[in-house]
């Protein structure tokens, strides 16, 4: 650190191997283009029209914390992943802490995938259900179980190259989804007649948590940065990704709110008229995406467990671990089938921690100069205060809503 303070870092030479600028932009957009687009209209209905300002501010905030992660990587060329940054800043405890929050985030996203499948398949086939040992299993629960059976074999695969290639269609899927929703409103007779409310203070905690979920890609950013031919271009990649994704999210939010207003459900697809072809296309896209991404999401969790010395390189144990992970996500999805509030919990708990608080703390620890009083330090402290407030209030609100709905 002393040598780096005495001699300014030299510009990095672009490496011969690695991904191009455009490919990294695509990968970054694929990271940010997730299931959050389904609940962004509901988030707007919870906060009102003025909450769109918060969407743009949160995008700006998360873009800045992404830049802080890049600066942490520039300070030490041995850093390759997010946990590596934690290790450089706080030692092994830092690595473990970051890994725990990353795996928790991935786990709950896997749960979200199952809830999403159950909701949308139940929308397509509303009269599904069966009795098992005298217990009636409803349509939504039935489809969660069927989805788990379908995706279970994919989780046993060690080489996910094909699935990764298929899941790269997430960016295109998001664009098609927005186009389908627009078509339903403009052509299929739904229209854009709902006025909505200007501001709903009671719904702001849920609204902000859902907005924040949409920008929780920081766990992947260091890996994307390290994969580039020229790492110095990553700041431009972040700018392109955040601008593009914000336009996509903002468009979907406005379209959905104008179409359905305060009647919006947790996922925009659940509001679409099922008899229209465009609605069915939107729902099919929504269903297919999680099927291709579920295995990729839980693989890092399984790999971390499998790296334990007693069970390393055991194929049978590997299959057992992955099967137990799938079973546990099914249980959680059946017990807490509330898509928007689970998403709000992810955004306010793991999302705030991984994407807002930790980048600031890691940067201040690694960069000594950043601790000197000035505009940068004031900005970072402000982000820490705002992030802590959003995390506490959002987590409390989402957990309270989940508990209330379970008791009801």
Automatic annotation (TrEMBL):
The UniProt record lists the keyword Endoplasmic reticulum: no
Ranges annotated as spanning the membrane: 48-69, 100-118, 138-157, 162-184, 204-225, 237-261, 281-304, 316-336, 342-364, 376-399
An example Gene Ontology CC term for this record: vacuolar membrane
A GO molecular function term, named singly, is: L-amino acid transmembrane transporter activity
Membrane topology of the entry: Multi-pass membrane protein
Could you tell me which residue ranges the Amino acid transporter transmembrane domain spans? 19-397
User: Can you say where in the cell this protein is located?
Assistant: Membrane
Q: Which InterPro entries does the protein's record reference?
A: AA_transpt_TM (IPR013057)
Give the keywords, sorted.
Amino-acid transport, Membrane, Transmembrane, Transmembrane helix, Transport
Instruction: State the protein's name.
Output: PREDICTED: vacuolar amino acid
Q: Which organism is it from?
A: Prunus dulcis
Lineage start: Eukaryota, Viridiplantae, Streptophyta, Embryophyta, Tracheophyta
């Amino acid at each position: 650190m002393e040598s780096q303070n005495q001699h300014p870092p030299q510009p990095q030479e672009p490496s011969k191997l690695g991904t191009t600028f455009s490919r990294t932009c695509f990968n970054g957009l694929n990271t940010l283009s997730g299931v959050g687009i389904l609940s962004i209209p509901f988030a707007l209905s919870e906060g009102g029209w003025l909450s769109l300002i918060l969407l743009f501010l949160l995008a700006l905030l998360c873009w800045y914390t992404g830049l802080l992660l890049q600066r942490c990587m520039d300070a030490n060329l041995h850093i390759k992943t997010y946990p590596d940054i934690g290790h450089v800043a706080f030692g092994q405890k830092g690595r473990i802490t970051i890994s725990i929050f990353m795996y928790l985030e991935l786990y709950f996203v896997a749960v979200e995938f199952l809830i999403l499948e159950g909701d949308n398949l139940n929308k397509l086939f509303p009269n599904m259900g069966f009795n098992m040992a005298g217990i009636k299993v409803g349509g939504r629960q039935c489809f969660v179980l069927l989805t788990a059976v379908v995706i279970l074999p994919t989780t046993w695969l060690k080489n996910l190259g094909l699935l990764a290639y298929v899941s790269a269609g997430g960016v295109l899927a998001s664009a098609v989804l927005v186009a389908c929703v627009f078509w339903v409103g403009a052509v299929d007779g739904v229209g854009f007649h709902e006025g909505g409310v200007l501001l709903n203070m009671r719904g702001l905690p849920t609204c902000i948590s859902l907005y924040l979920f949409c920008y929780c890609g920081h766990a992947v950013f260091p890996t994307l940065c390290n994969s580039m031919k020229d790492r110095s271009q990553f700041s431009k990649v972040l700018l392109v990704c955040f601008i593009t994704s914000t336009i996509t999210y903002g468009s979907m939010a406005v379209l959905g709110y104008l179409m359905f207003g305060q009647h919006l459900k947790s996922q925009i697809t659940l509001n679409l008229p099922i008899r229209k072809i465009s609605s069915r296309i939107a729902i099919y896209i929504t269903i297919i995406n999680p099927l291709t991404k579920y295995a990729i999401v839980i693989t890092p969790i399984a790999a971390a467990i499998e790296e334990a010395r007693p069970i390393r390189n055991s194929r049978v144990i590997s299959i057992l671990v992955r099967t137990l992970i799938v079973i546990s996500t099914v249980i959680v999805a059946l017990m807490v089938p509330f898509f928007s509030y689970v998403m709000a919990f992810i955004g306010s708990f793991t999302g705030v921690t991984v994407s807002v608080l930790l980048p600031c703390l890691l940067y201040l620890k690694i960069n000594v100069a950043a601790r000197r009083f000035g505009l940068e330090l004031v900005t970072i402290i402000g982000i820490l205060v705002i992030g802590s407030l959003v995390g506490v209030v959002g987590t409390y609100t989402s957990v309270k809503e989940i508990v209330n709905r379970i008791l009801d």
